[in-house]
Amino acid sequence: MRALPATVLALLGLATAACGGVANGVSNSDAAGGQSLDVQAQPQQPAPAATAKAAKPLDGKVVVIDPGHNGGNFRDPKAVNRKVNVLTKWKACDTTGTETADRYTEAAFTWDVSNRLVKILKQRGASVKLTRADNTSVGPCITERAAIGNKAKADAALSVHADGSAPGNHGFHVIMPEKIGGPVDPVVGDSKKLGLAVRQAFKKGTGLRYSTYIGKDALDFRNDLGGLNLSTVPKIFVECGNMKNAGEAAKFRDPEFRQRIALALANGLQQYLKA
Ligand SMILES: [Zn+2]
To answer: What's this model's pTM, rounded to 2 decimal places?
Structure first.
């Protein structure tokens, strides 16, 4: 055990200075010596006691990040192909997703980008939830992915994907919900605002072009996606690019580029959430 810690000595010194007299219980100060007590007290001036936690830009915001597909989907086609009701149609619970020519899967890509994104959002103060816990399980179904955002009462939800189109096609696009006479209708407007913010940040942050093959200026509106149709919170999908395009596949394989994607998505979300 050490002798009286410096902090205690400092406090004693401060008490003495503050009161202009001798504080109670200072018998130990004799051992330290009046002079040295004061000398020690000076450099120990503590910072203001209540060091307020610095405010962060996304304090109080709830964000749900949905990494598309799941690594385990490949081994359980029966579970994945089970039909679920997405209000405008019945469709498969989930799919395996696409992959690059050299077999880097969309599920692995979305899992990595999403985790990078969660880290950035948390650093900025947001409370963040993922729709799946790993990249080895099956599902969840697209209906459940929407339900997770709803249950969390997310201020924004974002589903991360990459496309699998003809190798000559390239570029990213954002998918937003359309009104379907269903639960998503009240958040169609805010979802579009979210989509516009993310489109701008994604282009700026990644340098990727608007899709050459889907939507107009990287904006696409759909009424056949369960993840959107069933959402009661503002939600979009981002198709980060075409995994079958050699140039974009090489970028997606690069961890540094995936970090750029995550940062761009975080900036887009923040732009929307702060507006
Ligand atoms: Zn996908």
So the answer is: 0.81
